[in-house]
Design goal:
The protein is an alpha/beta fold. It has four helices and four strands; from the N terminus they run H-E-H-E-E-H-E-H.
Length: about 140
């Protein structure tokens, strides 16, 4: 699925804008580390991946879309929180969007969202987060 979505987006951006904005990768991609590094350096704005970017990645101005996030056996509460945690990790850009896309809204999605909101409120109270949370749902 990563290859299909990545190739479709590559083709779309090339046809419509004549730009090479998209790369894709997965655990068996021999170039995955180079692609992750180039993405981290801002060489291209879209990286379609499996969960290989779930941990240990800090990229400024990052948004995350989790496709098929309604598959609870894969995307449980901790996994969704971990993926969402990639967003807003830079002091210079503490905002970003997390989109969970599926056929239905699951209890894992709702619980992860509520836990993230609670953690963000706590971080704001402690002075670690200087963003107006009322404008960020």
């Amino acid at each position: 699925m990563t290859v299909e979505v990545g190739q479709w987006l590559q083709d779309y951006y090339w046809r419509t804008r004549k730009v090479n904005w998209v790369e894709f990768s997965h655990s068996k991609d021999p170039e995955r580390e180079q692609k992750k590094e180039r993405f981290s350096q801002g060489k291209f704005p879209f990286l379609v991946t499996t969960t290989i970017m779930e941990r240990g990645v800090t990229i400024p101005r990052l948004n995350v879309l989790v496709l098929y996030s309604d598959q609870e056996r894969i995307f449980n509460i901790p996994a969704l929180i971990q993926m969402a945690g990639r967003v807003g990790r830079k002091k210079e850009y503490p905002q970003g969007r997390v989109l969970l896309v599926g056929n239905r809204i699951t209890s894992s999605m709702l619980q992860a969202k509520e836990m993230i909101k609670n953690l963000n409120r706590e971080a704001q109270r402690e002075g670690y987060l200087k963003v107006n949370l009322s404008s960020h749902a």
